[in-house]
Design goal:
By secondary structure, the protein is of the alpha+beta class. The protein has helices spanning 10-74, 94-106, 150-154, 176-182, 213-228, 251-254, 277-283, 327-404, 413-493, 498-572, 581-624; strands at residues 111-116, 121-124, 168-174, 187-196, 202-211, 235-239, 245-249, 287-294, 299-307, 320-326. Among the domains are: 75-211, PAS domain (Beta-Lactamase, 2-Layer Sandwich); 216-331, 2-Layer Sandwich (Beta-Lactamase), CATH 3.30.450. The chain is 57% helix and 10% strand. The strands form 2 sheets. A 5-stranded antiparallel sheet has the order 2-1-5-4-3, sandwiched between helices. A 5-stranded antiparallel sheet has the order 7-6-10-9-8, with helices on both faces. It starts with 9 loop residues before the first helix and ends in a 65-residue tail after the last helix.
């Protein structure tokens, strides 16, 4: 289990900072893209609305031309050829021949009549739009006085506006005469106008039956445009002023790109009485887009609608035009965009987290290893200092025993000489141990320099990240400026640029949010930089501690050298011992004092080594995630993955110092040294003679 005292490591902080720096802008971009999905819906609304308005305009413009055709045909001078009146066949009737020519030229009039004021047929075309003969002779026997267009035309009840006048328009209907002539559905729109003589007197009426296929062609072109934009289930419907369906173009039902002339639908199905909201709004003269439920198909639809208001002066017949698509088709593109957005965001965040983990590990792991080596060196220094303390205490005890045994010096001169030589050898060994201690301290100092260099690299990396965030902030600022310029240009464009102005405002808001996110991330990076600087400060303190250790070790080496010199002088003065007992007593007392000072110096060295271990543990916690027992140097070397052992051996509490070894005391008066009491560690002493 992880210790509850574990602090968040520098590696973890770098990982969190980088992931946050990348994730926040990514999430903001994702949110903005999600918000922009509403623009896709608005774009669909605008497309359906624009398409239905354009479709209605094409129909109205076509009927504007048909409105004038019938008057133009009646102005032909041939209609005043009385010799041709009532003659059957275009070979005898010049007016019928002219009608044939008009039919072939325009291609949309299956029936054209000229009747007198009593309703009797004067002339009728006997060829179709392709120039093929058609049987129309039977119409000469028919009287059209009761036709729905005859009396209104004769009475001058024209469909007129401030611009146009003189033509009566019969709303879409099934004409049995046209059906008999063509063998088709017979759906037409009638246009009739009076024919006047040179004195302006009405002498006849001209009637054109416009084939409804002209509407079918316009609807087919509109449907193909919608299908090209992935709206293949579009349904186009035209209703008359009473709400009856007069054109139903729905390839998904018919299986072909053609109008449905089913008598159960055309001029039979009433969308107004069926409660179709779009039809109701269109016949009220309104236009727009909305959703509605289609009870026939039993599904929700979304579409545009527009009411007929004419074009180019043609007042229109009050029709309503509807374009409807299923709700699933309308939302299909939006769902696809959102799915792709989610996939891109998830992949981006995953790659960002992986890259951040690799970078943080690359920065922190070398520092962790260096600190572990420094801590191991500190442990070695502490162990050597403990051994030196034990040797110094032993030396002090030996000096005390020598002082108590001065009375027996004369009898034990040979034994004293042997002990003196042993002291000289021990001093030499202590000097060598002190030299090795200094070398370890020097090595620790060099490692601390390496750690300081690594800390400088981290600080430089943090500065680089700060520069990158500054660049992001500058990009956001430039984007904001561009958005302002775009908004100004959109304002100059007036109503045409209104949509673009909204987009520019959203881009500007996005730029501002990106700048805010960059500043917030910069603040977090500054926090990480300050923590790196704190680590550098701690490294400097540790270096200072190493310097103190080096100074103490040099003092220790100097003191041990003096002990060795004193021991040599004792050996040289053995021959004069009997004459210098008093002088030897003074030297022995001096040795005791020197040993005590050496013990004190060794204790200070041990304390300094312990402090070094604690400071290294603190640095380890900041950089690599230290554990609770790191302060006692028990963490161990890094295992694979940068982790360390955290528990000391069983039965050995963390931080326990070894007990100083005391030399065994001999008989009162003289100490006999053997191999077991020989000191192999240096004994730090203060300079004393």
């Amino acid at each position: 289990m992880r210790s509850p005292n574990i602090k968040r490591s520098l590696q973890t902080q770098i990982l969190i900072a980088i992931v946050a720096a990348g994730a926040i802008p990514a999430l903001l971009v994702g949110y903005a893209a999600y918000r922009s999905s509403s623009y896709l819906s608005e774009a669909l609304n605008e497309k359906l609305h624009a398409t239905v308005v354009d479709l209605n305009d094409k129909i109205e413009r076509n009927f504007f031309e048909r409105y004038g055709d019938v008057q133009a045909f009646g102005l032909n001078e041939v209609v005043h050829d009385r010799a041709s009146w009532y003659q059957i066949g275009s070979s005898k009737n010049r007016i019928a021949a002219a009608a044939n020519a008009y039919g072939q030229l325009y291609g949309i009039y299956p029936l054209m009549l000229l009747v007198d004021l009593d309703g009797k047929v004067i002339a009728v075309n006997d060829r179709d739009a392709a120039g093929k003969p058609v049987e129309t002779a039977w119409l000469y026997e028919k009287n059209f006085r009761s036709a729905p267009w005859f009396q209104p035309t004769l009475a001058g009840k024209f469909l007129k506006s401030d611009v146009l006048d003189g033509t009566y328009v019969t709303d879409a209907h099934l004409d049995p005469d046209v059906k008999r002539i063509t063998g088709a559905h017979g759906m037409v729109v009638g246009f009739s106008a009076p024919v006047k003589d040179r004195d302006g007197k009405t002498v006849a009426l001209w009637y054109n039956a416009a084939d409804f296929r002209v509407i079918e062609t316009i609807l087919r072109e509109t449907y193909e445009s919608l299908a090209h934009d992935d709206l293949g289930d579009a349904e186009i419907t035209v209703v008359n002023r009473d709400g009856l369906v007069i054109a139903d173009f729905d390839p998904t039902v018919l299986g072909a790109k053609a109008m449905n002339f089913d008598p159960q639908v055309v001029l039979s199905r009433n969308l107004v009485t069926a409660g179709n909201a779009m039809a109701v709004e269109a016949l009220a003269g309104k236009q727009g887009v909305m959703g509605d439920f289609n009870p026939i198909k039993k599904l929700k639809q979304f579409g545009g609608y527009v009411g007929s208001k004419g074009a180019l002066g043609y007042p229109g017949l009050g029709w309503g035009v509807l374009i409807r698509v299923s709700e699933e088709t309308a939302n299909g593109e939006l769902r696809g965009q959102l799915r792709m957005l989610v996939a891109i965001l998830v992949a981006s965040l995953g790659m960002l987290a992986l890259g951040a983990w690799w970078l943080a590990r690359s920065l922190a792991l070398p520092l962790v290893r260096s600190l572990d080596e420094v801590r191991a060196t500190g442990g070695s220094v502490a162990a050597i200092a403990a051994q030196t303390t034990a040797s110094s205490v032993t030396l002090a005890d030996s000096a005390s025993e020598q002082a108590a045994s001065l009375e027996e010096t004369s009898a034990s001169i040979e034994e004293l000489s042997s002990m003196t030589r042993l002291n000289a050898e021990s001093a030499q060994k202590a000097r060598q141990a002190a030299l090795e201690t200094r070398q370890c301290a020097d090595a620790g100092a060099e490692q601390m320099k390496s750690m300081q260099s690594a800390m400088d690299v981290i600080a430089a990396a943090s500065q680089d990240i700060t520069k990158i965030l500054k660049t992001i902030d500058e990009i956001a600022f430039q984007t904001n400026i561009l958005a302002l310029n775009a908004a100004v240009e959109a304002a100059r464009a007036g109503e045409a640029g209104a949509g673009f102005a909204v987009v520019a405002e959203e881009v500007r808001a996005l730029a501002q949010r990106s700048a805010a996110a960059a500043r917030e991330t910069a603040e977090k990076i500054e926090g990480s930089t300050s923590r790196s600087e704190e680590g550098a400060r701690l490294s400097t303190q540790v270096a200072g501690s190493f310097q103190q250790i080096q100074d103490k070790v040099r003092d220790l080496e100097r003191l041990i050298t003096e002990i060795a010199n004193a021991s040599r002088e004792q050996s040289e003065g053995i021959a004069q011992v009997n004459l210098a007992v008093t002088q030897m007593d003074q030297v022995t007392q001096a040795n005791a004092a020197t040993a005590e000072e050496g013990a004190a110096s060794a204790e200070e060295l041990n304390n300094a080594a312990t402090e070094l271990s604690e400071q290294v543990a603190v640095a380890m916690q900041h950089i690599g995630g230290g554990r609770a027992n790191d302060a006692q140097g028990q963490g161990g070397k890094p295992l694979p993955g940068g982790k360390r052992r955290q528990d000391p051996p069983a039965g050995s509490p963390a931080g326990e110092k070894p007990a100083p070894a005391r030399a065994p005391k001999g008989k009162a008066g003289i100490v006999k040294h053997s191999a077991a009491t020989t000191h192999d560690a240096s004994a730090p002493t203060a300079a004393h003679r």
